[in-house]
Amino acid sequence: MKVDVAQVVGAVVREVRDVERDGKPAKMVIASRIYDTGREDLWDALTSAERIPRWFLPIDGELKLGGKYQFKGNAGGTITECEKPQRLSVTWEMGPQVSWITLHLTPKGARTELRLEHTALVPPEFWDQFGPGAVGVGWDGGFLGLGRHLENPAAAGGPEEGMAWAMSEEGKSFYRACSEAWYAASIASGTPPDAARAAADRTTAFYTGGEHKD
Question: Which residues of 182-193 are buried (b: 16+ CB within 10 A; e: fewer)?
Fold first, then answer.
């Protein structure tokens, strides 16, 4: 598949915040993008068990309020809020690690803005090592897949195509650019530039299969 890397990376607005969750300091990574579709269609793409595997991963479970879901080979959790077609909140659980995701869908004329907020209680040493790009770059990949699906809903797509592309030179260029964008968001949130740079370089190496020397 061919991707205009600069256009896709530039379509996402990124933000990093220090917040509180359950009385404890937490980190929130925010990604927003406006898609060329109505809110009902975007909601369906985000919540339909038939459509989700076309742009993200195969999913099992009860996709309703209070239901549990599981992405194949990835996270699972519980659907904690479901206000169709504007707000969806879930827990994001991988092993013993639990974080929280909220999606907001806002009409922008004939288009729709998707805002993803991912909140986690992050160990300081992990945040220092990888920064916001650890999860942010992964969501960039999801936003890319969603955009391609909305442009051509009938296309098969799926994780196999995405994984193969991720290891191509174009895919690596995409992930490098996303990591740089999260580096800029990290600095904007108050991270010292040297620390943000080191964390971004480690994240880039992780996503591209490169090496990082501390």
Answer: bbebbbebebee
